Amino acid sequence: MFRLAWRHSVCRDSFALTTRSLAAALLGPERSQQGPLRSLISNPLSYRSPVLQPQPARYLSPPVCRSMASGGEQESTCHKHTNRLAKERSPYLLQHAHNPVDWYPWGQEAFEKAKTEDKPIFLSVGYSTCHWCHVMERESFQDEEIGKILSDNFICIKLDREERPDVDKVYMTFVQATSGGGGWPMSVWLTPELKPFIGGTYFPPRDQGRRPGFRTVLMRIIEQWQNNRAALESSGERILVALRKGTSISANPGGSPPLAPDVANRCFQQLAHSYEEEYGGFRNAPKFPSPVNLMFLMSYWSVNRSTSEGVEALQMAMHTLRMMALGGIHDHVAQGFHRYSTDSSWHVPHFEKMLYDQAQLAVAYITAFQVSGEQFYADVAKNILLYVSRDLSDKSGGFYSAEDADSVPASGGPDKREGAFCVWTASEVRELLSDVAEGSTGGATQADIFMHHYGVKEQGNVAPEQDPQGELQGQNVLIVRYSVELTAARFGITVEKVNHLLASARAKMADMRITRPRPHLDTKMLASWNGLMLSAFARVGAVLGDEALLERAKQAGNFLKEHLWDSETQTILRSCCGGEQHELQQMSPSISGFLDDYAFIICGLLDLYEATFQTEWLQWAEELQLRQDLLFWDDQGGGYFCSDPSDSTILLQLKEDQDGAEPSANSVSASNLLRLSHYTGNQEWLQKSQQLLTAFSDRLARVPIALPEMVRALMAQHYTLKQIVICGQRDDSDTAGLLAAVNSLYLPFKKTAH
Hints:
The chain has 754 residues and is of the alpha+beta class. It has 27 helices and 21 strands. Strand 6 (186-190) and strand 7 form a beta hairpin. It is globular. The chain starts with 19 loop residues before the first helix and ends with a strand. It comes from Nothobranchius furzeri. It holds the Pfam family Thioredox_DsbH. InterPro entries: 6-hairpin_glycosidase_sf, 6hp_glycosidase-like_sf, Ssp411, Ssp411-like_TRX, Thioredoxin-like_sf. This is Spermatosis associated 20.
């Protein structure tokens, strides 16, 4: 299904750059009024470019054939090409191991080759469950002609953005600043010194009307590198200088954080302005879950309960959460949430499932339960964790990163389709749910009731405009169209009977679905996302008093300490992988953790400590915070750098200033520091939290909607954390009752001790 490359974050107006200099460098002054990519490709080159100098494809091995297990049987797989990515462990890099492209992983070998051969670098960035990454791989990187153009004229580097978010952030910042948007796959061309000079996202392989193809783009860049290199390099350097200035975040000497009530009020007003009232959410389409917005709104309500603004904030959050849970973005058969909705009603999703979404949404739904006492929200939170426990869990205790959107249809065929694993035809539903529902009006079958309730139509329920590529023709994406009360009235049966019939139908459909070819599972286990999921299991388990969920949280904590913590070097490791048989594999070479790895794990450990009162988790959180301060703290400007500032291959030292699909690590760190200062009495951490918030003062004051999680930390500083001390034996019934009472309440600015 067609998906536009989504702009991952808004372009910062602090470094909104004119692209005229870059366009002039690429094509000369006469084209400098156009955007860089549009200018670059406005006049396609003939393939007769003198720059092309065919070379032997020595990077490719002979055809490789091997047997591999597939569905319990041995299936022969033969590859015409195999490149050096076959030795990598990243699932994304392995997806490109048989391209006719001389791919390198990010590293010194590629950098040295670019310098030695004096060639530009083509950097391609994506991740293993990215739909449009799959499309570009199939269309362009499997193309023999394009592969030869790339390999003969560029040093080609393939990068997994989830393994190296530091590299991704630098070049995404460049692409957003020079083209006005960004997304994945990201395509960037660099000098041998790693300085970018042109970038974009997805390109079709060949020209489509006025839309240029990837081959055309490559040919134009080859020509300009040969004939206009100095201008390319100088323009790229000027943009980097501007980006360094525009992305700089630091506290003014003697400054202090802005007033929390003012910032919170402005954040609420900005969210209210973008709120879509009918279905909830914060734009028309595409719609993203945005848990950071929902958590802020519930926190805002907690301190403004008596005001109309507070009531409105709560309504916005609760309505959005309800409509998402009823929508097609929610997997009604096998639980969990898809990445985002392509329409305003949360109906037709982009079908990939990401671990970080499940973690944050579980916390948002359990928080809604605390606020409302409505079991509906608790059930959604539990179902999310059921999905994660069943489908995204490793036997080591860690959590996998994602499930893909694309899979082979049950009907067979060589091509994967988006959503094939999740959608249904009316005939499938009727065949599976053919039993008559006793007592129903007109002898309705279970299928009749199910199809009415979930909007299943004979011709399919996906509008053509939501399916430009025709992958969902005749298919149905389940969406709750009626309440159980209305469905019961429609068929003349009780609400209890409807609930039983629907639950039975979903179970039958789940059993049938697991017989279909499954989508790709990214078995990479990231420290940061595992930290988010640790928080989810700890917080949901604490609120519900569910010992099984708390035990799973402890398993996750032990996994992180055993497999992603190097005790000798006192360093978090970024990731490890499950192998073909799900055995644990460490990355080689190992990648040291980034700021978000430390921040998210510390937050998870603090949540686990508050849920269990086992001091080992608090002690490790303190240890990790000390390491985070040493590795990433900016002594001059305050706040934390996203990555190690001593790494010379990272051209921009960035401090993430947006809470997006994931909260920014600085936002989470502001809260972590405050919580740790209260638990330990370490006033230095309180001061660091204040310095961090001061560094982001301008952003918080002007566009707090960009940092709702940081606004929550600012509110916690202002309203101070309320200390709740529980006395008594942990396993005593009275103590358990007190804990249950505290955990049932939504008290966002508290710390609990025992």
